[in-house]
Amino acid sequence: MKFIVSSTALLSHLQTISRVINSKNSMAILDNFLFRLERNKLTMTASDQETTMTTSVEVIEAEGEGLFAVNAKILLDPLKELPDQPLTFEIDDNNLEIFLYFQNGKYNFIGVNGDEYPQKMPLSDSAITFKVEAQQLLNGIGCTLFATADDELRPIMNGIYMDIFPENVTFVSSDTHKLVRFKNAAIQPGVKASFILPKKPANLLKNILPKEPGEVLVTFDDKNACFTLTNFVLNCRLIEGNYPNYNSVIPQSGPNRLIIDRSMFTNVLRRVSVFSNQASSLVKLQLQENQMVVSAQNIDFSTSAEETIECNYSGDNLVIGFSANYLIEILNNIPSQQIVLELSDATRAGIILPLENKENGELLMLLMPMMLTDF
Length: 375
Known about the structure:
The chain has helices at 7-17, 72-81, 134-144, 199-208, 262-273, 324-332, and strands at residues 2-6, 32-38, 41-47, 51-58, 61-63, 66-71, 86-91, 97-102, 105-110, 112-113, 128-133, 159-165, 168-174, 178-184, 193-198, 215-220, 224-228, 232-237, 256-261, 282-288, 291-298, 303-310, 312-314, 318-323, 338-343, 350-354, 361-367. It is an alpha+beta fold and 375 residues long. The protein folds into three domains: 2-116, Roll (DNA Polymerase III, Chain A, domain 2); 128-248, DNA Polymerase III, subunit A, domain 2 (DNA Polymerase III, Chain A, domain 2, Roll), CATH 3.10.150.10; 251-367, DNA Polymerase III, Chain A, domain 2. A nine-stranded antiparallel β-sheet has the order 10-6-2-3-4-18-17-16-11. A hairpin with a 4-residue loop joins strand 21 (291-298) and strand 22 (303-310). Helix 5 (262-273) runs antiparallel to helix 6. The protein is elongated.
């Protein structure tokens, strides 16, 4: 078996799918890329058993066909240092000895039998399919991924819940401290269904979707999902279980309403939180008509800080505590210069919204308050 391929094309595809490979694998074969040569098409696969990503590249010349696997590190590390040039692979079909020839030299290593590579799980005949623009899927994942949990006891919270309706898809994530709900009416699947997308494949999609033109074909059943993009195919095992009723924990519009510049609020929180208890990052917000006082203190080190901000606030005088870290994280993930903070009282969750939503998108973030025990 022999083929010639562009080093740049090969490297870019391998680097993308290499993110699937774990640093420690239960099976040695999973340290490898799987290559399949068919005519002038070279298909490459990386897997951790739960998630599999496949991509392909056209080769310049090809002789023979076959299947083989190559250690990812042995191949990737030298390719990163090579300038753009044609690479010639010669594989001995009997013992899988591989010679890689390039402009000023050659590499020699032994491949692995590709038949040992685990197969991706097939989807059932009852699988549901819909199409979505790559940018719209990216919007949903990008808004919600940061709020997923790392909870071994409740794995259903460790992914993005995609609640699918005929006229929209709602993306939801929560770690019990914060919750994000993004309703995207630009996606109209025409079906009613739902699934929980694990964090790892969601991260992989977030990385590759910005470079993918056109539509993504989403196919899923009750255990697995497949995302077919222009240049990549991602298969993953879904998180099984029933996601909590997220709408039931979202309070109705609070009577106390703050409108403020997002960047200014974030900068104030960053400065003041330096003086908070580092374990809790607790900050206190004192709200009264058109004014907010942001303060923090650390009793253990006798430090404190306070800043006063002129703002658009209407409602009752209110004092409430939040984790500055969580609040900053939420503010960093709202694509709007002006944000709205709706509050009921000091014991109920605050709702944080963009002042103006993007077309066909409705974003809502929720943050649980903290007891002001240190004040």
